[in-house]
Amino acid sequence: AQSVTQLGSHVSVSEGALVLLRCNYSSSVPPYLFWYVQYPNQGLQLLLKYTSAATLVKGINGFEAEFKKSETSFHLTKPSAHMSDAAEYFCAVSDSGGYQKVTFGIGTKLQVIP
Amino acid sequence: DAGITQSPRYKITETGRQVTLMCHQTWSHSYMFWYRQDLGHGLRLIYYSAAADITDKGEVPDGYVVSRSKTENFPLTLESATRSQTSVYFCASSLVGPEAFFGQGTRLTVV
Q1: How confident is the model at residue B103 (pLDDT cuts 50, 70, 90)?
Q2: Span B77-97, pLDDT tens digits
């Protein structure tokens, strides 16, 4: 069985500060991992994905995530927060590569303080 | 317009009524999905479809019906709406593999 845990339902950072959103996963096989972003009243948009290639994955809008097997983690980072980064972020895991098997976390709402 | 569109964006219905949420995609993606989003639960899969005329249950299928007679359409029907089905519903599509594209969502309120 696969599962994903996002630590912190709400995270606040100052504009220009480091963004760190935490995600830990559980999977019985090597996983596929994703981060999605949801802006208010919008659908989810893929930020980045890990599919067993490089462990450091770069995504859109300056975000990146590092797959750490030993820690079963896939934390999302951005060196400098921008006001436009305020949104909800979802981590997701799939152990089969097929989308029907994707499990989403409950989301982390990021607030950026000017 | 290219992409994936959902209609209506907002819907209020009464308990016991049947309501259908529409989803249309222009990419000819094989896979289509319906999710519901609730506070504290993230996104939960209701139904998915691998191709026209092929559908299967997800995590929370009870009270919902889907059909897929054409590749581009994947309507979701609540046969007899209940207050517990008040939620935001998202349709998504995928060509193959784990990357999906989401619609803007339908906010459904059952009163």
Answers
A1: very high
A2: 999 999 999 999 999 998 866
Look at A32 and B103 and tell me if their CB atoms are within 8 Å.
no
Mean pLDDT of chain B: 93
* Angstrom distance (rounded) from CA A6 to CA B35: 19
Indicate which of A7, A99, A102, A103 best probes the interface with B, i.e. most B CBs within 10 Å of its own CB. A99
Say whether residue A90 is in contact with chain B using an 8 A CB cutoff. yes
b/e burial code for range A96-109 (CB count within 10 A of at least 16 → b): ebbbbbbbbbbbbe
Nearest C-alpha neighbor of A104 from the set A28, A44, A58, A21: A44
Q: Stretch B5-26: mean pLDDT, rounded? A: 97
Residue B88 in contact with partner chain A when CB distance is under 8 A: no
**Alpha-carbon span A3 to A47, nearest angstrom:** 19
Q: Evaluate whether B31 touches B77 at the Cβ level (below 8 Å).
A: no
